[in-house]
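Entry 12.
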Amino acid sequence: MTENIIILDGYNVIHRIPELQQFLNKDLATARTQLFRFCSSWLATRRDFGLFYIVFDGQSGVVGNDYQPGTGIRTIYTNTGETADTRILTMIDELSATAAITVVSDDNFVKTHSRAREATIMSASNFFTTPTANRSARQQRHSNEKNLTPKQIKDINASLKNEWNIE
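Predicted 3D structure (tokens):
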């Protein structure tokens, strides 16, 4: 069975999500910590992914791991002269033989080149709004509900179209 891995473009996500961006007023470390916390929560409720790599642009010797995010999450700070974008693409090349890769980024360069490497792309906003809280409770509730028959679906759609005056 192939492992599902997420590679997240750290600063790109922080700058795209208002709930994380607000922490930039304090400092980058606080914004990173909030991202790590969100990812820990996300991973804890999603059993379909086994590992997160969060990649940040960095400078050797200047930026370090200021927060240990927890099991299943690895932070990577690029070396001086290396961008997070190129590190993400290198990681896809290295990991794709043994894992299914999903890249979280809104950066066009990252998305285009990741797609060319057959990685799945997820936007920052989709990642951040993916329901994680109470997921198991919703799954349990929905598993107890009966599925609608095709006729019931057709009748409901017809009724709604009539109610909303849609042809």
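Annotation: Residues 133-145 have pLDDT under 50 and may be disordered. Strands lie at 3-9, 51-56, 73-77, 99-104, 120-122.
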